[in-house]
User: Which sequence fits this backbone?
């Protein structure tokens, strides 16, 4: 699962500022004799050696560091980098990237900023894969893997990848849009070596094309097929044949149009699965009432390697006991689309002793979370989503659940928790009980909501998190927060790389604290907070070290943003108007700025101005 | 407790339509003008179209909100120090539209949301049953009009100008029940048969399992129970 997964420990690698000093360095160091003749041979040897050594260097951070040593290292590193990660597709152009890195086999690109997921950005803002697709096809004919997040991919792009890249093996699209089943049909048909097709939380238009049937006949090398986000009917018989022909298939995540009866048929053909998305987990409507129900328990019992279970898109809880046989082995369980109660959860969760990742809906209430805390001692990641995502909805989970989790799941590293009420006490307790926290994202759904017990702002709770959780790199805050909370973050959040702020703070000081205090800050997204031009100015020293800054509905003016743009030529400062807003001269609705080697992009929609 | 005996008796038998604690519960929009207990009589027609914020014993459940959300423990009221939330703010809470759409498309939840409240309606002496979707109506008046149309060959008799029973007037009520006119009754969640109109409309929709239109004289046994139930809710 990778819903907004920021697991990579990545340095700012979307941009390389190679110092001039490095470029001029002479690798040999020998001073005497004819420089050209003497240095040619040793240089070559060194480079060959380097090449062999650098092949073993896989971490992006290490590679970036190596490339800065000197010109020779820069060159060799560029030759040996086979996995290219670009965190902002506009930070560098396809031409520049392909010119520097000539032997890339895997490309990872990220496009739109995260707040675009919440409809804060008008559609058609950009992040088109097309120029990259064309460049890759020309420069990297041996390209094997493409991993895109929040990009717009067209059917033509899919065709390009499939037709021009003969050995293409792996396509992963996360939160992407712009394509449909007809593009998928072409893609799966032409990619004869395809091993991985993962469509995760992407919007796929239903062109009424039977893309599953388009997989080539005969044995396939498919290892992973994830299409749970595809909201259209699929040809089940074709899918069944495909699964039967894919002996290496380990990951299969079905969409909600696959009934539990169909799931059964697939499972008995693929007991080797390690990751399963169950589809609807309810019977199809056509199934007769009197039909013999297959032995679902047996089907699950046969899947001895199953460690990751998800789906349950339209769950009929009566069928839940079928999964009992696999619970003891599960390390990852995603119930976040299953509206189940605590009572329905308990018999399952009580068997999941090895669980490390758990995604769930708040329908399980605090009681359900207590059950999780009682059993899942190995839990590393918890995400609790709201059934009712409204500001004043019911609040089935609260500080009680959070407290229970903090006491039971001491190894917790990552938490995303939606709730209607939360106390400082519970947050402080978590900061002390779970010192390994790396990601802490708390969303109190009511804006400006104070601690319901003390009436105080939530400053102390978040303060405790940054103080006590020394490994924290990602933080999202909510509730009633004064500038004090940001003071805490600036003082103690020294490793924080990603910060999300909404409806918080009192004045410019809040943002100043953060920009001046957090040296590792890379991604800062802020909405509806009273930060203005003065605050923006206080980050001038740091913006080149960041991937991006997003500020919407704050107190910025065009002049303030213009000032930044003038002071920092390598920063692209985009002012975005939401589509139906009239042009307001004195207020900036959305500021999105990012470092870039390319200057203003050429594919601007009309609602975006670059200062 | 030595108010006039008559007053006490009246209070005991009074069918209350207002808020148990006296008027003006948790800040609902259409508050009752005055406490029903003190003034006693209040024409039914005044209450029929009221949207009452019931602060019932189920702690603070605002019936004006979506009835279809699963009942969970209700949360604290919103923070009073900040402006009350109005319409939902764009993009908040930060749940991906992808996820929101999935939840909306789910069979189960959509069933709950759009599920009609179909109940069978039988009328004593009529050869057929009908079904009505209570969610199609927003008041007793509208329901009674629809029922009248449905069973038009049977007159609904002396219902008073509003078309429904005036519970406030005990003597009038007893007259009606003693007559051969028809009164609508319903079976509630607990399996009890009640006279239609004794509870606020939304509560009725929630608890009504079926409707039966019977002769007043047969319904006479229901009246005291209806009053008792109402009292116990107070």
Assistant:
């Amino acid at each position: 699962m990778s819903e907004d997964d920021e697991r990579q420990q990545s340095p700012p690698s979307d941009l390389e500022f190679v110092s001039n000093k490095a470029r001029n360095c002479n690798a040999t160091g020998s001073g005497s004799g004819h420089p050209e003749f003497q240095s040619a041979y040793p240089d070559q040897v060194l480079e060959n050696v380097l090449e062999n050594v650098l092949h073993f260097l896989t971490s992006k951070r290490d590679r970036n560091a190596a490339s800065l040593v000197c010109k020779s290292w820069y060159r060799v590193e560029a030759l040996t980098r086979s996995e290219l990660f670009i965190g902002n597709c506009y930070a560098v152009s396809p031409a520049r990237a392909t010119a520097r890195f000539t032997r890339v086999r895997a490309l990872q690109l990220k496009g739109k900023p995260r707040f675009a997921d919440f409809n804060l950005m008008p559609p058609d803002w950009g992040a088109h894969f097309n120029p990259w697709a064309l460049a890759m096809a020309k420069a990297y004919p041996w390209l094997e893997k493409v991993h895109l997040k929040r990009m717009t991919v067209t059917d033509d792009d899919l065709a390009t990848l499939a037709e021009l890249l003969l050995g293409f093996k792996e396509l992963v699209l996360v939160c992407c849009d712009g394509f449909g089943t007809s593009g998928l049909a072409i893609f799966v048909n032409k990619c004869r070596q395809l091993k991985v097709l993962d469509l995760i939380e992407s919007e796929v238009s239903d062109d009424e094309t039977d893309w599953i049937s388009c997989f080539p006949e005969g044995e396939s090398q498919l290892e992973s097929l994830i299409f749970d986000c595809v909201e259209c009917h699929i040809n089940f018989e074709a899918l069944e044949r495909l699964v039967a022909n894919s002996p290496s298939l380990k990951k299969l995540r079905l969409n909600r149009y696959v009934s539990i009866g169909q799931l059964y048929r697939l499972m008995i053909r693929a007991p080797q699965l390690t990751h399963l998305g169950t589809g609807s987990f309810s019977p199809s409507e056509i199934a007769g009432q009197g039909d013999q129900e297959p032995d679902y328990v047996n089907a699950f019992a046969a899947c001895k390697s199953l460690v990751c279970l998800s789906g349950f898109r339209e769950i009929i809880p009566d069928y839940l006991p079928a999964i009992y046989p696999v619970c003891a082995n599960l390390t990852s369980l995603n119930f976040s689309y299953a509206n189940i109660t605590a009572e329905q959860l308990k018999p399952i969760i009580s068997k999941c002793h090895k669980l490390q990742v758990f995604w769930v809906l708040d329908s399980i209430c605090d009681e359900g979370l207590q059950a999780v805390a009682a059993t899942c001692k190995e839990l590393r990641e918890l995400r609790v989503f709201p059934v009712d995502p409204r500001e004043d909805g019911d609040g089935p989970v609260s500080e009680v659940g959070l407290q229970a989790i903090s006491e039971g799941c001491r190894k917790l590293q990552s938490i995303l928790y939606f709730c209607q009420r939360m106390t400082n006490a519970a947050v402080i307790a978590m900061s002390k009980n779970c010192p390994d926290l790396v990601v802490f994202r708390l969303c109190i759904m009511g804006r400006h909501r104070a601690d319901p017990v003390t009436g105080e702002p939530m400053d102390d709770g978040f303060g405790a998190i940054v103080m006590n959780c020394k490994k924290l790199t990602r933080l999202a805050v909510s509730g009633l927060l004064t500038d004090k909370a940001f003071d805490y973050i600036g003082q103690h959040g020294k490793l924080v790389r990603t910060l999300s702020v909404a409806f918080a703070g009192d004045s410019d000081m809040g943002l100043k604290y953060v920009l001046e205090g957090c040296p590792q800050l890379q991604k800062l997204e802020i909405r509806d907070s009273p930060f203005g031009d003065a605050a923006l100015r206080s980050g001038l020293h740091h913006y080149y070290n960041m991937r991006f800054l997003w500020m919407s509905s704050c107190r910025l003016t065009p002049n303030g943003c213009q000032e930044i743009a003038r002071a920092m030529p390598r920063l692209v400062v985009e002012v975005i108007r939401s589509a139906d807003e009239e042009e307001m001269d004195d207020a900036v609705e959305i500021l999105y700025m990012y470092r870039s080697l390319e200057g203003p992009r050429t594919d601007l929609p009309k609602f975006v101005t670059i200062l | 407790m030595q108010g006039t005996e008559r007053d006490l008796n009246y209070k005991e038998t009074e069918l209350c339509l207002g808020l148990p604690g006296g008027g003006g519960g948790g800040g609902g929009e259409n508050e009752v003008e005055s406490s029903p207990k003190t003034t006693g009589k209040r024409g039914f027609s005044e209450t029929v179209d009221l949207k009452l914020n019931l602060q019932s014993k189920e702690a603070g459940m605002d019936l004006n909100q979506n009835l279809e959300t699963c009942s969970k423990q209700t949360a604290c009221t919103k923070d009073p120090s900040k402006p009350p939330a109005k319409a939902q703010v764009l993009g908040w809470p930060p749940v991906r539209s992808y996820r929101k759409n999935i939840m909306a498309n789910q069979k189960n939840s959509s069933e709950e949301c759009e599920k009609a409240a179909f109940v069978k309606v039988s009328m004593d002496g009529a050869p057929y049953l009908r079904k009505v979707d209570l969610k199609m109506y927003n008041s007793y008046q509208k329901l009674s009009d629809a029922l009248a149309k449905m069973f038009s060959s049977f007159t609904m008799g002396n219902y008073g100008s509003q078309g429904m029973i005036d519970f406030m007037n005990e003597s009038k009520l007893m007259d009606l029940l003693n007559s051969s006119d028809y009164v609508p009754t319903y079976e509630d969640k607990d399996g009890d048969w009640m006279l239609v109109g004794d509870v606020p409309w939304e509560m009725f929709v929630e608890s009504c399992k079926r409707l039966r239109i019977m002769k007043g004289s047969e319904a006479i046994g229901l009246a005291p129970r209806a009053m008792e139930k109402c009292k116990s809710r107070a």
About this structure: The CA atoms of residues 228 and 400 of chain A lie 33 Å apart.
